[in-house]
Amino acid sequence: MSILAIDIGGTKLAAALVDDKLNISARREIPTPGSRTPEALEEALSGLVQPLKGYADCFAAASTGIIRHGVLTALNPSNLGGLEQFPLFRILNEITGLPGVTLNDAQAAAWAEYNALRGNIRDMVFITVSTGVGGGIISNGRLLTGPGGLAGHLGHLIADPQGPQCGCGRKGCVEAIASGRAIASAARYELEGLTAKAIFAHASAGNAQARVLIQRSASAIAALIADIKMITDCQEIVIGGSVGLAPGYIDLVSDILNQQPDIYNASISPARYNHNAGIIGSALLALKMMKKEVL
Ligand code: ADP
Ligand code: BMX
Ligand code: ZN
Fold it and tell me: What is the pLDDT of residue 83?
């Protein structure tokens, strides 16, 4: 069995072939189209999967946004604008001519990371700190998606009621403070206009403002983890995304969380599948579908 797995993020689109043993091959990555129109996304996806689709039995797509019945709707349109109702499943089915599955990127990554823990833990939460802040909740061994696909959108819990406006329409969401996009948009003076990646590089080189921006992001994620612990009583928090996996970031979050009373603390680890958690999670879901099993 060969699965064409696709990860659609606010910054990059990735695709790869995944076999039943979860080996990844032929991985390719392109930037998410800047024009942010449905046509541009369709064209980019088509080009991305073109060299791979002939080798696959089905597709599996993990995408940023709320995915309900195969349709993508941006909760935060500034992360992936112009996509009020993007028929993701239909478009990938047309592009590839294959059967497939679609789900939210962080939900997919949570499922992959849960499987990587091999049954040692039944309750875990995955958080991606990337273009946005996403999440996926595994409760008693089951992935929560919710009737509307919304379950786990942890980036839209409130970090600071007086905080910056979030693209979802609410004020002070974790995503508006901690995400890569938020780090970049809070930067001023010498850091203005830089990406979060560049700001991390400045922090490593000792830039004080860059360090404050990263500290602010890590504080919001630490507070989010404490809240998640209270809601789910989870045994493990797994962090992914390019900001989340940046060197030193998880240690910073852990140090801040350690200042809280013990009950708010959780064991935090980096995504075992690294930047491929979404790809592997959607492939696992597709494997289940092809074997006619349910999650
Ligand atoms: P996506 O959101 O498309 O899934 P990523 O997980 O790569 O993609 O997250 C993109 C965000 O991460 C951007 O804000 C980018 O600037 C930032 N970023 C990318 N690489 C790094 C890095 N090495 N260190 C810190 N931040 C990074
Ligand atoms: C946003 C939201 C989530 C997504 C999360 C991480 C949109 C378009 N996306 O909160 O569905 O899981 O960002 O997305 O509303 P990423 O692009 O950072 O991986
Ligand atoms: Zn929000």
Answer: 81
